[in-house]
Amino acid sequence: MIKYSLLNKLDIKNSKNITLFCNENFEIFNFKILGFAKEKLIKSLIQNNKVKNKKILLINLNDKQNIIVAKVNKNQKSLDNEKLGAEFYDFINSNSIHDISLINKNFLEKSLKDKFIDEFFHGIELKSYEFKKYKSKKNVNIFKFNIALPKDKKFKLDKTNRFKSLISGINFTKDLVSEPGNILHPDEYAKRLYSLKRLGLKVNILDEKKLKKLGMNSLLGVGQGSIRGSYLVCLEWNGAKNRNKPLAFVGKGVCFDTGGISLKPAKFMEDMTYDMAGSAVVVGLMKSLALRKAKVNAVGVVGLVENMPGGNAQRPGDIIKSYSGKTIEILNTDAEGRLVLADALTYTEKKYKPKFIVDLATLTGAIIVSLGSEYAGLFSNDDKLSNQLYEAGLKVEEKVWRMPLNENYNKLINSKNADMQNINYQGGAGSTTAAQFLQRFILNKTPWAHLDIAGMAFSKYNGALNSWGATGFGVRLLNKLIEDNYE
Predict the structure, then answer these.
(1) What is the third-level CATH fold of 162-485?
(2) 76 or 456: which carries more pLDDT confidence?
(3) What pLDDT is recorded for position 100?
(4) 13: left (phi over 0), alpha (psi -120 to 50) or beta
(5) What are the domain boundaries of the chain?
(6) What is the pTM of this model?
């Protein structure tokens, strides 16, 4: 937990851990504020402790006080500021430092225009996330920051509420992805989404009865082996004064994926609690937009199901009719996410007539083979939208890489018995043929992009801006896409 105190003056003598910012050569910007130490002494201590390529140094000034020196490069960009904050958090956490004073006032005054402090602490917040809900002893770490800022009564951290709302949305996404399947099943998930109405979101929940009436058999087929319900939940945010077409975001919400009758191997099946990460990203984004009162019209649509091998489960060889009217032969019940998205995509396009649609899903293991955990796979029918996503990803360290779509790939999912089959049984191009399948449910040439985040949604090692576990990948990416192009 991060706590902040904004102060015009700090008690230097009683500040145990003092943080100073320096330049590339580890030259402190202003020594004068440290009345208890001479400039030559601090310089010599820095030189004695300096390590090449190190960004942060801990200097023991005396038995009672430490100086933490953090290096800020000239013309540092927003992402660099965030990464420095994340690295700073790792540093103080590993050194068990919990009470920190930031006092390099002159540097802060020059950097406030670049939002350095907001971005620095945003990095700290991103990196400090932990999921300890089910620990009997939670041992919550509390980090207290005393920040010396200019004597400006109007000044406060995060004036526009941008970073606070973004962290709230990201952490909501991470919380959802981290929940076990016995807790966050579709019924519970739908209830949690309904509670977002208090933020000003319009929430519409389509249950099984309504879905059957609409003919969403593709989505319903995935969940029919579970005792839990299946849902399509629509979240609407109308923040623009005009009646512009909304931006649409669609997410796969398979709360637990056993593979169904085409049962997955037991090893690592426990990780399939995060097969709903695509939906969680959409939900976290919508929450963030509502909290910061984004001046944009947006809709988030998520399909919530549980894929179980019950007595009523869908079988390989079944043929179902989707909401679009197109028929699908089910050759593998573990290729279920695309079946959920198929109905969700067509419904979103038909009901909301959006400016564009971006869908997110932990869709294929093949994308991990292709791109590992560095890039999400991007498939699209629109160059402009693709370029916007690519550029936004670079700015926030949530990178995407465009993969091919082609008619020759599309032919691989043709079926002899129905309009299409849900997998390519000839083998190869698993991520692309899955995307080709989805593209068939964009009926009116709406600009569309599919993000396969299977390698990005959950991490078993610490990243630059995230801790172990759920990453929240996609919330910052889509928020940046909106900020830079549509607000």
Answers:
(1) Aminopeptidase (3.40.630)
(2) 456
(3) 92
(4) alpha
(5) 2-148, 162-485
(6) 0.95
